[in-house]
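Chapter review: from sequence to fold.
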Amino acid sequence: MESLFIPLEENQFYHIYNRGNNGSTIFFEERNYSFFLKKLDEYLSDYLFIYAYCLLPNHFHLLVSVKSFTNLSDEKKYLKKGTQQLTAPSEIISECFRCFFLSYSKAIKQQEKRTGSLFEKNHKRIKIEANNYLLSLVNYIHRNPETHQLTNDYKIYPYSSFQSMLSHKPTKLRREDVLEWFGGKEHFMLYHGGNPCLKIV
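The token string follows.
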């Protein structure tokens, strides 16, 4: 089920995505992709685990889960929004997403000397009800560059989490969790239609 109004609940998985206003570009330069991920980490890493992502010139996809608020510090369990004090996890995370998009949009507008909305008004979210759907969703997210004809081989596309899944380099992604869903790195590669012997360091 897809809706802006689906609450972001603790310990649940979601497919989050959005595109540029009227399908327009949201990533103009190479540095914009890393800046987007930096801002995502800055605003939402306290509340979300991130499992997979793909950033394309005019849209993005994220696979996330909401952390348990029980384990958060007391200061993270409340968030001020104007004169309001938000306490519900869904409200806090939605506000963090709003601030994240605003921060990224502001920087891009300055860079491109443009006005108006960068993103479509509301990001989309789908709650993942079945665990076995997670595998096909990871595959779907990683294949997006090929689907949109940005590359002939999505496995070498630089702005997705695919290569991070095969790397030994430190990452904030829940890489070990994702590989475990597939039964290990070899099965991850086989599921993605790739060579299980391919090594990326």
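Two observations follow directly from the output. The chain is about 35% helix and 15% strand. The chain has one domain: 13-191.
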